[in-house]
Amino acid sequence: MEAAFALLDETKATARNSIIRSVTSSSDFLKRNVKREAKQLITHLAEAWNQSMIIVLATPDGWRLLKDDVRRQAKLMRILFEMFGLDAFVDGFVPIKVELATSKLLKELPQLSMRLQAEGFSLRIGSEPLTAAAWEFLLDATRSSQDWFELKPEIRCNGEILTDEELRGLMDGSGLLRRDGKLLLLDDVSAQVLAMFADAMPASGKKKKKGENELVRVPRLQILDWLQLRSHGVRIRLSEDDSRILESLLNFSSIPERPLPQGLNAILRHYQVDAWHWLAFLYEHRFGACLADDMGLGKTVQGISLLAGIMSGELATAAAPGTPHLVVAPPSLLFNWEAEIARFLPAARVMLYSGSGRSTAEFAAHDIIITSYGIIQRDCELLAEQSFNVLIFDETQVVKNLQAATTNAVRKLRGAFTLALTGTPVENHLGEYYAIMDLCLPGLLGTREEFSRKISRDGAAGTARLIGRTRPFVLRRTKQLIAAELPPKIEMDIPLELTIKQRAFYQRTVEEVRGQVKEAYESHAPAQARIIALTAILRLRQICLAPALAAPGASDASPKLEFLAEQLAELRDEGHSALVFSQFTGYLDLIERGLKEQGFICQRLDGSTPVPQRKNLVEAFQNSAEPSVFLISLKAGGKGLNLTRATYVYHMDPWWNPAVENQASDRAHRIGQTEQVTITRLIMRHTIEEKMMALKAQKLQLYKAILEDGAGGGGAGLTREDFDFLLG
Question: pTM value?
Fold first, then answer.
C-alpha cells in the first residue's frame, strides 16, 4: 500500500519502476512468486488510481453525468492511511470505512483538517462543515494575594468573545465550538490553555454563584505555568509589582544587585555573589530556594551570606525581631557549620543543639542554632513549637523519602524561609525531587498525588512543565565554573581478577541469589521485593571485596586488599596522603587492621564516630606532617568534609549511584586543593561490579536530565530488569 500510494506522485515510468523494485527487493519478498504477485498488485493499483471514468446517473430530473476521479479518491485514502494506519480500515476499501476511537479522532482532528485542506478536501461532521479558527487569549491576573492569583480569562474566537456557555462546552474536551452553523476547531496551543483552565476551575457538580465561572483561582507559585504560555501568543496582564517579581524569577539577570552584607568575613567568587543576589531576592519575596551547586563550590558560605544579610539589616527580616535561624545537617557536618560560621560570620551567636543535656531555653539568646536531623526527629514536638527565621537544610537528600520519620519531622518545623543545600536533589527518581522542592516551597508542585498523576497522565510534556515550574527556585552551577581554579582530576578504573577459590564461591552464590530475587518478585509487592533483592545481592558485593565478609571464617585475603596495600606503600614513600572509601564498615576493619600491621598512619571515620571526635580526626589528617591514610565509610563521610590534604582517592566498592560517589571524591578535589587529584575505582572483572558501572551511567543520565539539561525525564531506583541485568 505504501508503494502504491507513493506512485501517486510519480508520472515518469522509470521513477515508478524504481519504487516498485525498491519495495519488492526487501527480505519480505524473497520468494519469486510472492515478488511477482506484489509487483502485479502494486501496478494494478497504480493503473486503477490513474484512471478516470464518466458515470451516467438516472435522476427524476433526467440523466446526469458524473466524473469519477479515482486519483483524487486515492489521495484522500492516502491521508487516512498515513495518519491512522491500515488497521483503521474496515470492510475493505469499497466502500471506504475507517473506524477510530472518539478520543483518538478528536486528538488528531486539527492535523487531519490541515492535511485535508492542503489537498483541497473539506471536512464535515454530520452536516456541519469543520473549519479552523483564529483564537486569542488574554488573562487578567491583576488581582492577587499573598497566596493566590485570580485569573479572569478573555477568550476570543475569530475576534468575538466566547460566552460562558461556549466556554463550558469547550471544557468537555471535544475541542469543537459550534457557531453560525459551523464547527470551529481548536489548535494545539488553544487546547492546552483550555485544559489548564479546566484543571483550575471548580468541579462542574458544585453549585456556583452567578459570575463565578469568570474567575480561575490558582496558587500564586503556579502562575509560572501560565507565564510559559506567553511564548505561544497568550497575553497576560499583571500588576506592576507582580510583573517585576515574576520577570525576575524567570530571568536570572534581572534580579537586582546589592552590596555584600556587612559582617560577612569572606571574599566571594562571582558565582557566589550571584547566589547572594538570588537568595536575597527570594527571601524578600517569601519564596524558598534549593541551592544545588556541585560539591566544592561553597554552598555553606553562600547560605551564611543570606544569614549575614538579615543580621546586618540589608534584608528586612521576615520574622519577629530576635527570631533565630536554624541549620539542620548530618551529624558529621555539625562541627563544620560551627567552624564556618565562626570564620565567615564571627559576630553571630551560635548554639550547638545536641548532646544529652540539650535545651531550647537559650534559643532566644542566640542568632543561629545548629542541630542534626536525628535530633529533629527525636525532639520533633518540642522544636515544632519554636519559630525560626531561616531554615537551612544541609545535604537535604537525607529527607528525600516522604515516608521516613525524619522527613515528616523536619516538615513540622516553622520558618519564614526555607533553604535546601544539596548537590544531589535527585538520585533515583522524580519523587525525591518532589520531596525536596515541596519542603522548600510547599504547594509549588501540588500534592504528591497530583504530582504523580500529572506525570503519569501527561508523560514527558507534563514532567517538563512541572520541572519548569521549579526552575526559578533551583540554582545549580557545576565545577566547570571554577575549572581554571582547580587542579586536574584524573579518574581511572582498575580491573582485578578474583582468585580461584573466590570465583568458585562467587559462582555458587550467584545461583542462590538469582533464585532469591526471582522468588521475591513472584511472592512480594515490588517495593518489598526490591529490598529483599538488594539484601541478596549484598553477598555478591561482599565476596568481591573479601570472602570473609559474606561467610564468617572464610579467608579475609583478596586482590583488592593486596592492590591497595601496594599502592599506599608506594604513595607513602612519595609523601602522598590518601582517602579510602567503602560502604562496608566491616571491610574498613579488615583494611585498617592490615594497614596498621604494615606501619601506616591511619584515621578512621564511620557512622559510629562521635561528632566531637570527627572534628579532631579531620584536623589531625589535614595538619599531619607525615603522609597518612583516612578510612571513611561512604555514608558517614561522603559529604561536607574538607580533606584537601589527600591527593589520591580510592573507591573500594562501586555503587550504581554516581552522585554519591562523586560527593565522596570531592572531599579532596575542591577549593583549597593545589595538587592533581587521582581517583581510582577497583573493579572485579566478570562480576556484579562491572554491571554496576553500566547502571551508574544510566543514573547519571537521569541526574543530568533534571538538573542540567532540563529534560525532566522520568526514572526510578533499581527495577526487576536491573536485578536481572546485574545477575545475568
Answer: 0.58
